[in-house]
Write a structure and sequence with these properties.
This protein is mainly alpha-helical. The protein has helices at residues 2-26, 33-62, 65-88, 94-114, 116-133, 136-142, 150-167, 183-201, 205-224, 228-246, 249-269, 271-281, 292-304, 327-335, 337-360, 364-388, 406-449; strands at residues 170-171, 174-175. The chain starts with a helix and ends in a 7-residue tail after the last helix.
């Protein structure tokens, strides 16, 4: 009987995910505010039923009461998050909030299936991050001086990354964390704020040189620390923000050429880079060593097929560091390729929403922040999924909100809170524009009705 329930559950979960993904994109073409609210409500129901089905299966397969306890705690967390945002931020983007809950749900499901203790720790970190994140939209709206702290952002970033390089212990071939915290995750945010603050007020050649020097320090320290994934994310964010702010293709071309040359140099200078490239080119040739991880990842993806094997029916635990770097492979194996494609589309919906916010914000500082954070998010998703599927060499970065990683989850939640603040700012700008338009129309009508000013 349990096997029948497990087999049926994978189709139920897949159907719920497909419908949710459809809602993400259909909502863009909504006809009315009432229809939008109905679709948002339906999304919450889809998340609820997906979580209920998944955790029911995990409990039936493990008979571990901790699964039920975790499920109740997780649902309380989601309920509190939805209620508090509706109370304090009536202008917030509920679609953005729903997508965050959906990605967190997928992560909690897979982590609970792999290791309940890890899932519990992830939930605690996400809860703490969400509490902090509740005050960030207010800070974005009220603290106008944030755009003046240009060199403070740069100094904090360089100092913290330098401390990691000097003091951190090597883990999985790279220096990543101090006292269990990975500073590069938070510095992704301060780096974007630095670039935005500098380029919003000056896009001259001198400003570009300053931005390049500081970006070079960030990327250089990360390369020396062998945190290659983060280094690439910082570089791409720098390149996109420079190009968008200056609108000069020459800078983009020079940046791409410089980045390509740096990649070649890194290949010859660092042995771990050569190892990852060789594992990417022919993982079976080095299966016993550096190729083992990617081969197991590909086996998992292939085994899952389109519909997956079902929760607790696969063997994702044989993939080294599966909870951090290869959670996407575990999702493919047990929930299926179609579910994984939908997950990618939800992430894409996230990115498109952020770009839409950036395009509509008039203030150049906030516009660049939205664009920079959106670029970092999208490229991190690309690096994670690309590495797991052997599309690109592995970089060792997490899938935002889905993979296990305290610093990653915390920084992503804070990043999305910043985006919420920018969305609310955009709504404020729209309201102010509409107010001025109505006042102007009122003045025109008043002049037209004034004595002696009529048409003869």
């Amino acid at each position: 009987m349990i096997n029948v329930i497990v087999e049926l559950s994978k189709y139920i979960i897949l159907t719920l995910m497909v419908v949710y993904t459809f809602h993400c994109f259909y909502m863009v073409h909504r006809q009315s505010e009432e229809e939008k609210n109905e679709l948002l409500h339906q999304q919450l129901m889809l998340i609820f039923f997906m979580d209920f089905t998944a955790f029911l299966v995990i409990y039936l397969k493990t008979l571990d009461f901790r699964v039920i306890q975790f499920y109740m705690e997780m649902m309380a967390f989601f309920a509190a998050l939805q209620i508090l945002y509706r109370i304090f931020y009536k202008k917030a983007s509920l679609l953005l909030l729903n997508n965050m809950c959906m990605l967190l749900s997928v992560g909690f499901i897979m982590l609970c299936r792999l290791d309940i203790a890890t899932a519990t720790k992830q939930l605690l970190i996400a809860s703490a991050g969400s509490i902090i994140a509740l005050i960030i939209p207010v800070m974005i709206r009220k603290m106008k001086f944030l755009r003046k702290l240009t060199w403070l952002y740069a100094g904090v970033g360089v100092i913290l990354l330098g401390a990691v390089l000097v003091l951190a212990q090597t883990s999985y071939g790279a220096k990543l964390s101090l006292m269990g915290i990975q500073p590069s995750e938070v510095i992704k945010i301060t780096f974007v704020f630095f670039m935005a603050a500098l380029l919003a007020k000056d896009t001259s050649f001198n400003a570009v040189v300053k931005a390049t020097v500081i970006a070079g320090l960030h990327v250089g320290i990360l390369v020396l620390s062998r945190d290659l994934g983060s280094a690439v994310i910082f570089f791409v964010a720098y390149l996109v923000m420079i190009f968008v702010s200056t609108k000069k293709k020459s800078y983009l071309g020079i940046g791409l050429a410089g980045g390509s040359a740096a990649a070649v140099i890194a290949y010859f200078l660092f042995g771990h880079v050569r190892q990852r490239v060789s594992a990417w080119k022919d993982p079976m040739a080095v299966y016993q060593n550096e190729g083992y991880q990617i081969v197991q990842s590909l086996f998992a993806i292939g085994t899952g097929g389109w519909f997956g094997m079902g929760l607790c029916q696969g063997s994702p635990e044989v993939i080294p560091v599966v909870k951090n770097d290869f959670i996407f492979s575990a999702i493919c194996e047990e929930l299926g390729g179609i579910f994984a494609i939908c997950l990618i589309l939800v992430c894409m919906s996230f990115f498109l929403m952020i770009v839409n916010i950036a395009l509509k914000i008039k203030n150049p500082f906030y516009k660049l922040i939205a664009l920079g954070l959106g670029t970092e998010y999208a490229f991190q998703v690309f690096l994670t999924i690309g590495g797991a599927t052997k599309f690109i060499p592995m970089t060792g970065v997490t899938l935002p909100l889905v993979s296990y990683g305290g610093s990653s989850v915390m920084s992503t939640i804070l990043m999305l809170a910043i985006i919420q603040g920018l969305y609310i700012l955009r709504e404020d700008e729209d309201e102010e524009f509409e107010k001025r338009r109505k006042e102007a129309a009122k003045r025109v009508r008043a002049r037209a009705q004034a004595p002696g000013e009529g048409n003869y």
